[in-house]
């Protein structure tokens, strides 16, 4: 009951501040994340996201990302990856934004730990961004840090929260901040679903987003047969 009350209080706070949004419509992100284990030390990350200024209309961004994960141990993972991003940033509330295509290289390190049944995850990421605006190109670099907390409620139900800050390594230091809260369900053994809310702050505007995320973790290693 205490966990349920805490969840309701969090979502009330988040939605109470939604009126400060830089737009009139509540947008949505539709996301897929996959981790495919191929050996004891290696797995492949796959990801696709479609982002909208409104619910499934008024396109904002398509993000495709993949990476190779090296599992140092069960609580430490290093990743090298690539992303391709198409963005329509012409929403009128963000001055100077335009359409762009981006090739992105990233390096990432994840540390995990538990306190009782509560799981904590620290994600550190560096990104090298190669942007094409049609009439000009630009190269940018930034760092990201995300603290994620997962709280189990029942065998198949959990809460997930995170806060992530983006730091530009050129020009204005602050890039954006993302605050997220969701309820999750373990649908199958290797598949989970999250329904959540994201508050995305930029220096010139901020947005409220509903999120639907599907997470699929597969193990492609051959089962060893012992005689």
From TrEMBL:
It comes from the Bacteria. This is DUF2490 domain-containing protein.
